[in-house]
Specification:
By secondary structure, the chain is mostly helical. It has one domain. It has eight helices and no strands. It is globular.
């Protein structure tokens, strides 16, 4: 691991948040590790009223546009693999009004990671065409929306 990057991320608030409280520094599969770490705040958010959860989603998405863009600019890399705030928000979208329980958290995790990694249309187009922080955030938000839809269909079928 790059010691300078670690020092930069851990000492600068924008990088620290964009890198998912440092989880994006993990040397292998930082997006997956970031999504795992996103479960911790989700456990708190899931106990809130729906309106509060939605407000957190909107604010987290808007904050993410800024954080991811600034972190990417400072690092000189458009979408550095360690920037995982977008995975946090994508997972939280997936889990919106999800049934309670670890089974649903695990299923939501796998569905979100599947869509985030495979990037089916239109996710792949959005990922390539939208600039800056918006581009970094939107593809994961759409992946989260696809995963949310599948999770809700499964929940309704059970």
């Amino acid at each position: 691991m790059n010691r300078q990057l670690t020092k930069t991320v851990l000492s600068h608030p924008i990088h620290f948040l964009a890198f998912g409280f440092g989880s994006g520094l993990f040397p292998r599969a930082p997006g997956t590790v970031g999504t795992l770490v996103a479960i911790i705040p989700y456990l708190f958010f899931s106990q809130l009223p729906l309106a509060a959860y939605l407000l957190i989603l909107v604010l987290s998405f808007a904050l993410g546009i800024y954080l991811c863009e600034q972190s990417a600019k400072m690092l000189g890399v458009h979408d550095h693999g360690g920037i995982v705030w977008d995975e946090f928000v994508g997972f939280w979208i997936t889990m919106l009004v999800a049934p309670e329980g670890w089974l649903w958290i695990v299923l939501g995790f796998f569905l979100f990671r599947l869509f985030d990694i495979l990037k089916p249309f239109p996710i792949n187009v959005l990922d390539k065409r939208l600039p800056g922080g918006l581009g970094i955030m939107v593809d994961d938000a759409v992946a989260g929306t696809f995963a949310w839809l599948i999770l809700q269909i499964i929940a309704q079928m059970i």
